[in-house]
Amino acid sequence: MKLHFLGTGSSYPTTQRGVSATMLQHDDGSVWLFDCGEGTQIQAQKVTVSRQKITNIFITHLHGDHVFGLPGLLCTISSQLGLTEEDLKKKRPLVEIFGPLGINKLINTVLTISHSPLAFQYRVHELVPVKEQYPEDWEDTQVDVATLTPHPSELPGTRITAITDSDGNMHWLLKDDEQWDVRAGWIHHRVPSFGFVIREKDRTGTLDMKKLLTLGIKPGPMYGQLKGGNSITTEDGKTITPDMVVGPPYPGRTVVILGDTSDASPLAHLVQGCEVVVHEATFDNSLKDKALEFGHSTPLQAVAFAQSIGAKTLLLNHFSQRYVATSKDKSKNEESVALLEEQAVAALGGSLVNVQCADDFFVYDIPSQPRNMATTQQC
Amino acid sequence: MKLHFLGTGSSYPTTQRGVSATMLQHDDGSVWLFDCGEGTQIQAQKVTVSRQKITNIFITHLHGDHVFGLPGLLCTISSQLGLTEEDLKKKRPLVEIFGPLGINKLINTVLTISHSPLAFQYRVHELVPVKEQYPEDWEDTQVDVATLTPHPSELPGTRITAITDSDGNMHWLLKDDEQWDVRAGWIHHRVPSFGFVIREKDRTGTLDMKKLLTLGIKPGPMYGQLKGGNSITTEDGKTITPDMVVGPPYPGRTVVILGDTSDASPLAHLVQGCEVVVHEATFDNSLKDKALEFGHSTPLQAVAFAQSIGAKTLLLNHFSQRYVATSKDKSKNEESVALLEEQAVAALGGSLVNVQCADDFFVYDIPSQPRNMATTQQC
Q1: pTM surpassing 0.90?
Q2: CB contact under 8 A, A109 and B114
Q3: DSSP of B354-368, one letter per residue?
Q4: What is the ipTM score, two decimals?
Q5: Catalytic residue among A65, A208, A260, A284
Q6: Are the C-beta atoms of B25 and B7 separated by less than 8 Å?
Q7: What digits encode the pLDDT tens for the residues A135-194?
Q8: How far apart are CA B226 and CA B190, in angstroms?
């Protein structure tokens, strides 16, 4: 899996830096997009990953620098799909969109008023915020969710409400299938903001073909039974258990991608160790008060959170446009992202051994977890 | 007055070319923006004209490549205004927005859901289309215009309905003040699309100071009366008429800026001669059928229209992304905008003496009209 940072600036896009958009490219080539500020579709043209591979879009919160590029991206994906009318009649691709309550109304309204047809179907899953997420001065805690006329390409969506555990901690369950467990947690910001915890499930180990053939078991349905965790009995009456012929599992990786936040601690209960966390650092440590006032973080806060969840790597993004990207200025002065990176590096500790400020188009290859060869046989 | 082309591509923005956005910069520095596709605010950073100078925004039609950049542009203008709270309490700048019915709902919904405050006020004037503008297959001729809760920065807007003259021709009146006469006309496209006719009113000629002093009239209120077109009587009983001391008027210029169209003739009755018309040429002449199918034009069609309204200069824009900009490829092959320009030049005729394909960031200085020195006294 790889993370591709398409936009690492905050507030508004500039000619030097895009606003929030991060692609998570899976091993099978499919892409999950996290946030979609204005110009994301242009930034996406500068990388080798195709916009057409996007299957899931996750929006952390509804501020413009995280969502204004979404209608345009959907239209452009559609116009470039190159599907024939026959393809469309048979089966159209599906894009799943997850975001805070209100995201569906935004998408639906903009696509409808602009009279934009889509060559694929989409379904919106809205995360319903809890009262803790609304600032005290929020006048209208209720988003107007009057029934919208569905867009012709819109499949019925869902509302995802918070699950509260016995300790009073909350999360939202987005996906739980054979491959993935994806949950959201709430984080402090000026508007309801979420972080996403993406867990790749452990994959079954590899069959030891050499040993199977030695045991006289030829390729066939028994292989599937063994890989599925079941014992089998051979024609000559021998019982073969999976641990005899299936290698150790491939441990899944955990990736945490947060929205804007001045304090992500309400999400921490969801993570006990992860390969990488993407956390904002809008301002440098000297502007901590300003960061707090606007619901943002400093490198020091981001490092403390990464340590608290046992992260191995911390990638920072969402830099105020006052800071020049490290690729343009390495001087670590008060107007350079290099300063923020220096402040973060200085605070490294715990399991956290790596920190980096992401520049636009930075690619991070998420390392595989080491397999525990000692406890099971090698395949 | 100058035209600044910020985006000259159609459909979706690329790294090479933006989508529709054209600035009309007035002599006093203020700017009117025509269309605002995604990324317009980024393109605007590449020119010397400030986004903060925008006082009026005109949207030709509601397709995404003409409007998806509008919410982001409004937010960024706001964030960079740098007004103090005191300024805001006293008087905030006003941006007037004109566009087809539905534009207010789009702006209101996006700004409200994204919880975007604005440091200026805005007012939306919606042009109500006539039935001729709706394609036959348009299922919902009615835009849902249920009452919206006004955005905190939104002043009550207006609805502008078509005026039909005795010949059955229609237009929409947008501005009629001392300086400007701005009207819209409808043009054929797949969705209701407008063209804007901007007429600078004639400005009064200059007072002939030398002659005034010879006549014994010293600077004072009488100068204003003469310039305002009134005769005066001097202390010694002489009658002075304006034509004796006021030079010939400065003739106003006329600029026509069209939205997407396969046929702009329904607007032609509004223009009898103009300095410049901006007309789309999405496809080259060989793709005339495709152009018509998608509601677009070829260079030949654009030239014919420009000739029909007595335009002196025709500027083409809204090129399919299949064509490479002239600045990148001058070879006039079938994948170059240079081919479209060649096709247009070949068709020049009538009053039309100049044609050019606009590249992104092309600036056109609209020439002053010659003053008719023969009929009035020189100042």
Answers
A1: yes
A2: no
A3: EEEEPPTT-EEEPPP
A4: 0.92
A5: A65
A6: no
A7: 776 765 556 666 788 999 999 999 999 999 999 999 999 999 999 999 999 999 999 999
A8: 52
